[in-house]
Every structure is written in structure tokens, then in C-alpha cells.
Amino acid sequence: MRSRRDRFIAFLMVLPSLIAIYIFVYGFIGSAIQTSTTDWGTNPEQPPLAVNVIKSDVGLQNYEGIMTDLMEFSFRNSLANTFFFTVFFVGGCLVVGLILALLLDQNIAGEGLFRTIFLFPMALSFVVTGTIWRWMLQPNGGVNILPQQLFGLDPLEFSWMNSRDVLLPFEWAQVPSLLTYLGIIILAFMIVNYAVKGRWRASQYGVIAIIVIGLVLLSGFWENIWLPLDQPETETAIAPKGFNAALIGIIIAAVWQMSGYTMAMFIAGIRGIPEELREAARVDGCSELGVYWRVVLPQLNPIILSAMIILGHISLKIFDLVFAMAGPDNAQTIVPGLLVYVEGFRENSFARASAIAVIMLFFVAIIIVPYLWSQLRDDE
Length: 380
Hints:
MetI-like fold; mainly alpha
């Protein structure tokens, strides 16, 4: 049993760290939230860098502005870009990393060399990666002229980061309904998965969740709380929402850098699976492909979840890669991290920059908090 003296000494040892965390993490978060509810940098009568600047409280006006004001369409575009970047970045890293891990698991010659080569991009910073891929994706050089240089074919004409093509277009007012449908699809997939595993209680909870979400959608709940745009027709004309083709090059560069990381996670998980399980599956008549499908992949589910959480966190706060490849003024590739930089350090609109940062924190918390809660519950 630990004595009170031991507990007191342990508390004193961690007290400096606790103080630093409360000041430099939670204190600054609270300061950002408080700043986001003021007019600091948005009031023309109060210069934002004045010594005795007066900051008046405006409530949620900054949040309402970035969600509805026509002049703040860049923020809505950045949310759409972040969504598509996250989906393709996370999916690409998982697929490429898993393929590389499965190839290395075949006991090939020079496995250590290949593993080092695949992991090497991760040693680079996103700035270096962005600079290299910006050179490679020049519209009149790099990848575009490879067919001509290698095979004598016509060069490619894709503009990469300068492309203005918009794929999978949608209206901003459709966002709540589209996300609701996506949530229902994910829940339905989870219900089927739980039912196959015989976890009927979890399946029942999933069915109840789908019913509740469906009732919320049918009741018109989103129409009452989703703020409409000030000028939806004008915004659709000047800044259509969808998957900007200019993001393709950035996604390729990001997957190239981080797929080695997911490969390392997968190869560690595969090597941690007892060989007896594979041998038992082979004895029962499983082919080699069946061994991976029925034995190896199910054992990797916790690793896949961890990789998705980590990669999703990276994608939500991505800044340096986009800055290096496309710059802060490219409306087709804008992301929230870049907007915080532009609003806060170039336009001195500290209140709007804080509001965007708080929204980014909210999205990160949506991903991180449930994961940490589930991990702590499993530990208990």
C-alpha cells in the first residue's frame, strides 16, 4: 500500500508538469475561445496592434460570420477541402501501407533495405516533401513531361495545384443531410459486422442510433439550426463546393510521406501474430490468401483504428505541406490551418483566426476524445 507521504511526493513531482499543461495548453485554449467572442481585428475603429486596443464582446458573431458571410467563403471551402483530403489521405495511407506490409511479410531478400526505403520519406519534414513534390508537379515539367521523355508520347496537361476543376459537387445547405446519410451508412456497416460476430446487444444499440438519426433528419432539425448562407447563388457561382482537383497532388505527396509509417505499424502487428494461428488455419484448409483474410487482417483491427486516429489528426491540422506546395493564397487548396495564418498574421483579424482555430479544435476533439475514452475503458 502506498502511504500518504508517497502520494504527496508523487504529486509534488508531477506538479510542475500539471502547471505547465494548465497554463500553456488549457489556458491558451481558453484564451483563444475568449478572443473568438470579441471584435479584435474586425473593428476598423480599433487598430488590432494598438497598445491599448479595446476588445468588445460580440458573442458568437464571428462564428456566424465565417459560416454564412459571402466574404468568408474561403472557410467553407477549407472545410470541404479538409473533408476530402482526410478521406483520401487516410484511405490511401492505409491501403498503401497495408500492401507494403504484406509484401515485406513474404520473407523477401533485402527486407531490411526495402523497409528502410519505405520509411525514409517519414524522416523528411512536410516542408521538404512539399518543396520536392511542387517541383515534380510543375504544369510544364516534372511528372507531366515523363510520357514524352520516356515513351515519346504527348506530355500531360494536368494543372495539378492550379487546377480549377471541382469533382463531386454539392450545395452547402446539403452538408447536414449528406453527413447524416454517411453516419447511417457507417452505423449500418457496424451493425452488420456486430451481427456477424454475434454481438447482438451492440447491434441493437446501432439500430436504435439509426432510428434516432433518421427521426432527427425527418423532423427538419438541421434546417432549424443550420445557418443559411447570405448569398447562396453567388457563392455557388464563385466558389462551388466539392472535391477540388488541385488537392490531388497534395494528397499524393502526403500519402507518399506517411504510408511508410502505416507500413511500420502494420508490419509490427503482423509480426506480433502467433505463427501457430496461421498454421492452424492452413491445417484447416485455408489458402494463403484466406489466412491473411480470416486470421491476419482481423488481428490488425486495433492497429487500423490507431492509424486512422493518428492520420486523421494530422490531416485536420495540416498546414506546412499545403503551404509549401500551393501557398497560402490558392483558393482551391485552402485549409483551416492556412486560414488561421492568413487571418491572424497577415490580416491581423485575431478574433476570426481564433474562431477558426476553435472550430479546428472541435473537430480534432471529435476524433481524439472517443478514442481516448475507449482506450481508457479497455485499460480498466
